[in-house]
Amino acid sequence: MADSYFLPEILGEILLKLPAKSLLRFITVCESWHSIITSFPFISAHLAQTPHSDTLFVRFYVSTSHRENYSLFQDSNNQPFYLNFTLELNFQFNCQLGYFRIVGSCNGIMCLADDLFGELQSLILWNPSIQKFIALPMPSIKP
Predict the structure, then answer these.
(1) Per-domain residue ranges of the chain
(2) Counts of helices then strands in the chain (DSSP H, E)
């Protein structure tokens, strides 16, 4: 029913203007929205038109609580060393060693490894802005 009001091309252009978090909610509206939002051309176009973010990912250790904290900060005033606290991140996944190493990141997706002493326990792809993650299968070949 929702798809009868707009042509798919027009709907796609409207959806392109929305943030990723909203798009994740709208996937469930109807099948046509789901197929548009999850299509490779739409994802590529959305990523290409998304402005460069001034959001910083900060990892810091608090010795009194023996805990690593992860936070997002926004550099909204374009002034050196002026950061607005945006969000404290809580992992929704467990790590056996209590520590994650940031292996790398690409387009907002972070690759985390639970390998404190050189033995890989888990490998996770994590999108901190939407708080979703995928645990990757362990490689069958040891390095």
Answers:
(1) 2-49, 52-90, 94-143
(2) 4, 7
Helix or strand or coil: residue 20? helix
From first to last of its 143 residues, the chain has per-residue pLDDT tens of 454 677 878 888 888 888 877 888 888 888 888 888 888 888 888 888 776 666 666 666 667 766 666 666 666 665 554 444 444 555 666 655 556 777 888 877 888 887 766 667 778 888 876 777 888 887 777 65
Is 86 within 8 Å of 55 (Cβ atoms)?
yes
> Is the Cβ–Cβ distance between 33 and 2 less than 8 Å?
yes
Query: 12-46 as b/e, with b when 16 or more CB fall inside 10 Å?
Result: beebbeeeeeebeeeeeeeeebeebbeeeebeeeb
